Amino acid sequence: MDVPKDAQNGETTTDLTIDELFEFCHSITEKKIGLDVAVDKLKTFSNETLCKLLDTISIFDQGIPATSKEDPKDANPIKEFYRILEDVYIPEDVLALEINAGKQDPSLTQASIRCRTKLYYKQVKFNMLREESEGFSKLVTELVDNDADLSANEICNRIFSLIGQFNLDPNRVCDVILECFEASLDQSGEFIDILHELHVNREYITTLLGFKFTFYHDQSAPTPYSIYLVAAHLIANKFVELSDICPYMFPSSDKIKELRQEQIANATKRAKHAEVIHTANIFVEAKAQPLLDSGEATGVQGIPFATVVAQQEAEDLKISENFEENRVLETNQKVGLICALCEIGAWESAKELLDCMPDGFAVSGVPRISRAIATMIEAALDEFYHQKCDSSLRRKSVKRNYSLKLQPSIPKVSDWTDLCELSKTIGYLGPRIGYRPSCYAKLLRLIHVFIIDNKIYAGQKNEDYPEITQMLDSVIIPGMTLLDGNCGIAEEVWTLLQIWKSSHTTRYPELLIQKGKLLGRTKYLLKRLSKESSRQMGRQLSKLCFVYPFAVFDYLLSQVQTFDNFIEPIVESIRYLSNLSFDILIYSIIGQLASSHKQQLNESDGSLSAWLQSLASLTGNVFKRYSAELLGMLHYIINQLRVEKSFDLLILREIVHMMGGIEAYSGLTQEHLEALSGGMTLRQEGASFAGAKNKHACTRLRETLLQGDLAISLYILMAQHHQCLVYKASLNYPLKLTGELVDQCRDTLLQYSEFVVTNLKNSDYCNLVPPIDELLGKYKLSVDMAMSLYRPVFMTEVYKIFHASMEALKMTEKLEEEVETEAEPGEVKEKGDKGKAKNGSSKLNAALEQSFFKAALEQALDRVVNRIGSYFDSFTYAKQLNVRTFCMFWLLSRYDLEVPTNAYEREIEKIRRQRNDLGNNYEARARRKEEERLKSVESKLNEELKSQKEHVERMHMALVAMKDDIFVATTLRSGQASSFLQTCLLTRAVISQADALYAAAFFKKLHIIRAANNVTVLVVDKLFSDVLPLLLGLTENEAASLGQFLQSMMELLLYWRNESVYEKECYNCPGFEKKGAKANEGMILIDVKGFQRLCFKYQFQMGRTFANLLQRKDEDYIVVRNSLLFLTKLLPVFPVVKFIADDLWTIAERLRDQEKGKRDDLSLKTASYMSHLKKRKVKVFESLEFASTLPKPVQSTLLPKPEPDNKVVKKRKLTKTSKSIESDDGSTAKVSRLTTTENGNDPVDPKPSETSNGKKTSSKESQRNGSTKMLDDGEIPPSPMPLKERVSRKVDPKRD
Fold it and tell me: Where is the composition biased (Basic and acidic residues) (predicted)?
């Protein structure tokens, strides 16, 4: 044997054992070592090692199949290795002797062939585990039962011993190791180490593992999950490549795409089926149980809700049998492998396989995969979460063991950049992160901290880390649906959404299925919801809302819009909702209101739809009872007003009514109207139908309105929209509907302004309201709206100036007293002198106080006059009126003119009765509390009564001092009366009934203070002579308000009609001059008889006007309706003449029958008027009893004359009566009247009357000229002016 040259040179040589040389040869055969490397290593072998190598080759050659050596196609490198040995190291004859030993002997050659065949072919083709069970049984024992805690190297040595001792096939040993690995997955680490020590052939392991997967392709038996875990561990430890094992797995890629479509279709089917719960299959015993499982005695029997849920899940399982989680894992090997990879933490391999499938196929079909991915994400977030979140969130946290077999391949998160990278992994889950609440909560809190730390709020873009905030839309919000009713997380989400706006998507099949299930449970609960079971059902509803609130609320709102009697139980049952659920409820309500698929008007009559009214009522009750977010709803109403939509004002009306306890101004009784003229306490106690006010709700509404300029913005927008309705909406809507919308807008505006004035402090209100010139100029508000808004500011300024003056006076008196105390001791005054001085000082102070108040009033008025001076010139019909008078009229209220003493006394008496009735209705503690409240209210009422009396007295004295400047001395007194009537009295009278009473009170106050150049009779004459034009352009509420004004004015005239009252209060007063009297000619006064004739004339003119309107066929609806409203309001004062009352009854009876079946609402209004006319307790006068002298000849009936019948003429006996009467100018007239004694035609026209000067005039000419020169004829204009063409309510001054 030749010695290597390196050894000859004395270099270091290597000594190897037989085992190492055997492994060396095996590595060459397996191509693990190249021939060039093997040759280089041979150079280092010592002589002894080379001798051992010769022995090793002879043994090793026996294990090589003969066919491998003979096949020329075989690429086994051992033959090339032999050639190198022959050429360089071992002589050819020696090597051939060792290798070919026994070949010359045929028997030895045959024995060698048999041995090789037995070792190779027989073990491959037959199951040696059954034939040689002892060796394999010992092998299994060594692998599974490792009680001695041997290392992997020691176990491998024992395996080698068993292979040698029992002549085991190494490949079969590898298969047994995998089988034991599958049976002992808890020892996965040990088996992986064993495989590493054994240096197994990885291609063979891949083939063997693929054979196991292929065995289950026919699906006769389910694929065990343990195989997935074994494959996952082998892939994770690089024994098997994922690309090599996937071809062995089922199903194919095309089949997976088909399964995805079937999965989506099945989800849709499950969702639809889950919406209905069938309880017929539930056992009878279960139906007899209490309705709920809480153990409470509800008094309601039914199927337990847990039983219903179980029934629903069972039915859902039948539909989704082929898509159930375990079924998918058993039949879809690729999904099962993904699940196993995720559970052991091999995310990169799982991600590679997920990318080859349709989006969401694996994670949606197997929630187990989602939980495993969420576990890896949570492990990556854990340290960063504890670092960033508050101590309050982590003080009880402990180190979690995430039960991962390997360290997850997802890198740890250490900063926000890493979290952005992690969002890509979270994107594979989407909302399915909700399957693991702990991971969901940590991610939610980290996003919350990120938004706060980076000060990213609603409406702002996150430019640095957009992925973090995007997870709100794609993960957090929709993920709540998959949480199992977690109230705590719902509250945290709501807290986050308060500073960040977000939306969610429903493109995930799991959400669709969950929605169907929750909708079915919601239907089941609402079918059994009643007033008695509202609390018990509410608990279950709240749990459902924690999961998917949109599905619950959409169905709930649909039921409310269909059944209005469902509102109260619904409001009672939602008491257990979380803040987030309440927020979503309001969002759902806004969505229903803004839906373009719903008609907000009824097609039949054009009125507001019932669903809108029901939804408005529900909204008001929800905000009253619960602390739901109100700002969003108010912003929605504001946005609707900006686009000129007024239907949603009904929502604001209900909110103010329910939360603020403020009633709408329409439909108030006289007691309520009287209470509205008092102080704040009286208005709250006596002017509301709602009873006790909800203080908490009122406070929430006030605080919400104070955010920004919301309070004033709402008022200004409603005021602008009121004008928009008159000029724009009337072009698109029917006239009746336009009137209703105008009334609704004005009523809501008045109701809202009442709440703001009542509940806001004066300082807050004054800071919010813009100056009066901005309201008129910048915001383009009408005078009535601008003045109404500015009125509280004006009176606050008056008292601010007044109190400043009083404080200065008190400081002066204090200084004077200090000077007096420093006088000499001998200058001591007597007690009587002190009393006289004190009494005189008090009188002086009262006079000074009154002068201070007058000065403050004038100063505040001057400020307003200076601000609106430029705008006043544009008021065409106000030019003949004093601007100070104009401003004073609009800036005062009924509170400034009258003291509602009766209302105060009535409320105080009611409170005292309530205190007396406390004994039996309250417990001791509650009784004391209620008694203290009632005492406080009574004390406030007494203080308000005293304060208002003082204020009214101050205002009266100030007006008395200013009476000479109220009206300007002018020759155009008729035009001045028209301007005052149009721009002041009528314009304010149509706002509301309370304002109508104020207008009448102001008119009366001008008479009481004897205002110079007053136009009392001229105003009254124009008012009652021009009733008809006012009827044609008014809405329903405006007509009712103006009717209230006319009632108050007529009531005042009837009061003055009394002779003694007239002589005392009216005669010789400004304003009672005849029309022909000029300012420079002195006063020509109207006596009491002339005033009585005027009152009769007004009664007759109104009766004739209403009779003509109601007798016309097919008269316009608005005219007839307004006429009936006027007549109803005027019942206490009109008609009071018998023949007018009788004729109106006859006319109303005809109208009722005429409109029946055509315009039923008019027929009902007419019947209502007739009923009230019949029941009223008002004295009715004969004509001559009402007025001692009558005007010039008037008709005795309002009924039309029938056409004469030429065929039949009945004889009648005519009786002629005559009476001399005195007219206004002092002349006498003789009135003739013909009456009949039997039925027939109307009396013939009276003969021409003869005056005292001998001049004859016909009755027609007398009627044309009128009873006096100062009265108009009151004829009906030919073409009424409709509402949509009305610009302002006015009386043309050119008539005079």
Answer: 826-836, 1283-1296
